[in-house]
Design a protein that fits this description.
This is DNA mismatch repair protein MutL. Belongs to the DNA mismatch repair MutL/HexB family. It contains nine helices and 15 strands. The protein is of the alpha+beta class and 339 residues long. The strands form three sheets. Strands 5-4-3-6-2-1-7-8 form an eight-stranded mixed sheet, with helices on one face. A five-stranded mixed sheet has the order 9-10-13-11-12. The chain has a two-stranded antiparallel ribbon with strand order 14-15. Bound molecules: adenosine-5'-diphosphate and magnesium ion.
């Protein structure tokens, strides 16, 4: 008798969830990225108990077609790519088609969605990966996801959650990073009924920085603007006076995707080297635009890590972009910095 079996779908989804859904903040990230991919201009996130008992994401995006809504929860189901070669020039934040299946396998999810051209929307409830309700419903255009009881059926995962305030901190961090990368979208984060983040969505990065980090930080930012044949870098670099004691105030976006990357971090460090004491880190928000063919985003399931095919060029460009901003000392426009 052989011993090998093929795992049932629910089990394999739960295993896959282990990679994508580590904690409430990962759920928030996936849902908000879906809202962005859907063209939303307003995205609101609400959490209770650090997101463990409730995560609610409301958007005003394209909505999901009635016929698509149940398929969206299947593993490897996506509207964003059709074939492997599409990965070479990816422009959406999502493409793996795994997030909804993973989230739904380890929680109770309710989704209500309506595309603009439909008179009614659809409501679907899924618990631990099993569909338990699906009805037509009246609702506004866009999509609302409600995720409850995260990890109720995966006690090992549940056990690793930190206290609610720590989990809420992770959620707040990810919403801030995403908001900084999308100044044209208005974001709101409500934690235990208090609004903790509210960005204007007026497509001005500096006023987004102001709304997230306050006037003192926004006042001390210098504009970054650099371009050569293959790369464009814009954003704001904080004056050395507002340097921090950790890297948490550095936000890097590659083709609008928030990333972490050692090559870029060390180029920033190098540019600030003569201005900063040891163990001090610049405040900086950088948008890097690069031909998608020169980067591989499909390195890690959370897509936070990327690989460059020409690392030296990236290093040099980031170094010069930041260094030019520091040298020019041109003070920022004082727009949007009124009380
Ligand atoms: P991916 O984002 O990788 O395509 P997901 O599992 O995150 O995979 O989502 C599956 C599909 O569900 C998406 O491709 C999209 O078509 C649809 N979808 C999910 N969330 C939304 C949303 N907020 N608005 C519109 N469509 C959505
Ligand atoms: Mg997605």
């Amino acid at each position: 008798m052989g011993k090998i079996v093929i795992l049932d779908e629910n089990t394999s989804n739960q295993i896959a969830a282990g990679e994508v859904v580590e904690r409430p903040a990962s759920v928030v990230k996936e849902l908000v990225e879906n809202s962005i991919d859907a063209g939303s201009t307003n995205i609101s996130v609400e959490i209770s108990n650090g997101g463990v008992s409730l995560i609610k994401v409301v958007d005003n995006g394209s909505g999901i077609e009635e016929d698509d809504i149940e398929i969206a929860f299947e593993r490897h189901s996506t509207s964003k790519i059709r074939k492997a070669s599409d990965l070479e020039a990816i422009t959406s934040l999502g493409f793996r088609g795994e997030a909804l299946a993973s989230i739904a396998s380890v929680s109770t999810v309710e989704v209500t969605s309506r595309p603009a051209h439909r008179e009614y929307g659809r409501y679907v409830k899924i618990q631990g990966g099993t569909l338990i309700e699906s009805n037509q419903t009246g609702c506004p255009v866009g999509t609302t996801f409600i995720v409850r009881e995260l990890f109720y059926n995966t006690p090992a995962r549940f056990k690793f959650l930190k206290k609610d305030s720590t989990e809420a901190g992770y959620v707040s961090d990810i919403v801030s990073r995403i908001a900084l990368g999308n100044p044209d979208i208005s974001f709101r984060l409500i934690n235990n009924r208090n609004t903790v983040i509210h960005t204007p969505g007026n497509n001005d990065l500096l006023s987004t920085i102001y709304s997230l980090y306050g006037k003192e930080t926004a006042k001390e930012c210098m504009e970054v603007s650099y371009e050569d044949e293959s790369i464009k870098i814009t954003g704001y670099a904080g004056r050395p006076e507002i340097a921090r004691s950790n890297r948490n105030y550095q936000s890097i976006y590659l083709n609008r995707r928030y990333i972490k990357n050692k090559v870029i971090s060390s180029a920033i460090d190098e540019a600030y080297k003569t201005y900063l004491l040891k163990n001090k880190f610049a405040f900086i928000v950088l948008y890097i635009e690069l031909n998608p063919l020169l980067v591989d985003v499909n390195v890690h399931p959370t897509k936070m890590e990327v690989r460059f095919s020409r690392e030296q060029d990236i290093f040099r460009a980031v170094y010069h972009a930041v260094n030019n901003a520091l040298l020019s000392k041109t003070h920022i426009r004082n727009v949007a910095i009124s009380d």
